[in-house]
Amino acid sequence: MANKDAVFDVACERADDILRLYRQFAEKKPVMLLELPSQRIYAYPYLEFKNTLSERSQKMLDKEYHEALAHHKIVVFVKDDDRRKMISFSVEEE
Q1: CA atoms of 8 and 76, how far apart (whole Å)
Q2: Could you tell me the pTM of the whole model?
Q3: CB 80 within 8 A of CB 2
Q4: 34 phi and psi, to 5 degrees?
């Protein structure tokens, strides 16, 4: 659990940068991705990002993404290549 918390903490530290990039593409409702350890941030079109995931993860993304849209939220994925972990969560657009 500590690893997941550490990954989430890094995302929180970069929240302003994630939101800034999201706003550049907000009309397209992208899925945001923070890659670790590089800390690069990407805004992906929903379908393009979905197609990179396993079938199980695609189903999870579908649910989270549509729920986030309904509540004016952003879906953020954090991918930690060193730990081979990926988490997702939703945050307010503002």
Answers
A1: 10
A2: 0.89
A3: no
A4: -110, 120
- What is the sign, positive or negative, of the torsion defined by CA atoms of 26, 27, 31, 37? negative
pLDDT tens-place string over residues 43-63: 999 999 999 999 999 999 999
Instruction: Answer yes or no: are the C-beta atoms of 74 and 46 closer than 8 Å.
Output: no
| Side chain identity at residue 33, one-letter code | L
Q: Do 35 and 42 form a contact (C-beta atoms < 8 A)?
A: yes
pLDDT tens digits, 10-37:
888 999 999 999 999 999 999 999 999 9
Encode burial over 38-70: b for 16+ CB neighbours within 10 A, e otherwise. eeebebbebeebbeeeeeeeeeebeebbeebee
Strand boundaries in the chain, DSSP class E: 31-36, 40-44, 73-80, 85-92
As given in the structure block, the two tokens for residue 4 are: 């997941």
